Amino acid sequence: METMELRNGRDMLSMQRLTFGAGGFDDYAKRDAYFALLDIYYDEFGGRSFDTARMYCDWVPGGDGVSERVLGEWIHAREAAGRLRRQEIVVTTKGGHPRHEDMHGSRLDSESLTYDLMTSLETLQLPYVDVYLLHRDCPSVPVSEIMPTLDSFVRDGKIRFLGVSNWRVERIAEANRYAIEHGLTPFSVSQISFSLARSTPQQYGDDTLVCMNDHEYAWYLSNDFPVMAFSAQAKGFFSKLIAGEAVTPKINSRFLTDENLARLERVRAVATAKGVSPAAVAMAYLMENPVRTSAIFSCRTPAQLRDTLSASQVHLGEDCVRFLDAGSPLIF
Description:
This protein is of the alpha/beta class. 41% of the residues lie in helices and 16% in strands. The chain has 13 helices and 10 strands.
């Protein structure tokens, strides 16, 4: 599976272009089923990159901490069986998420970040994580109050690489300037809502999200700054509509636009011409994008998982990526 490199000025990390997202692990009673999905990714496809977060599923009764707990237990079980080496996998988690009742409130203070990180490490049963992301930004908090705390985590060996989720590019640039000027660890990766189906924070109904747009994209491209794409499959928007399946009101509100319907027809054309699934086309678009991208996916069944991971065997080429993106002429 293809990889992309993260750098922090002292070290380098290879992250695969398809990252298993454990955000859907919300019921500990389904642990064995979750283990089976992780095994398919790891054993059948050589998957080595995993994403979770401290706050995942805490809105579901009994779901608080399940995502990190299951992933950590799977790592330990497979390591104990000699099927996995911790040094060969990349574990990403996130902290600093505001409380759900106050999404514009900040939890980027040192005490909150320390609590979230230490709770994550305890739940994962790991002495460190490879990548740690701040799950939301609070622009009123100066970067000078954030970066020293994060740097101390790196120097203490708790984190290898730093990143952000749902930060605008101006704040990333500001934070990294400050870090470099003061000899601190900079951010190495950004997690952002990014898929072939475009959306906006307004369509999501959450103005604390950051979605890829032309402005953000231009900065990532010109600065060669890697991203992790969440909502990479747009909740199955292309797959479901092409298959003639009903889509939920949430999918409609987020992705049903004239622009995305035009892209759907291009996905249909590429999938037919190449003999692959729409899901594979949508994921391959991100894997081969000019902006270095690791696409985060979540699946509930082995069939969905294998369909998504078939993207690792698909080669689109630059012309096809441009065709999917903007309808540029393409001869199949």
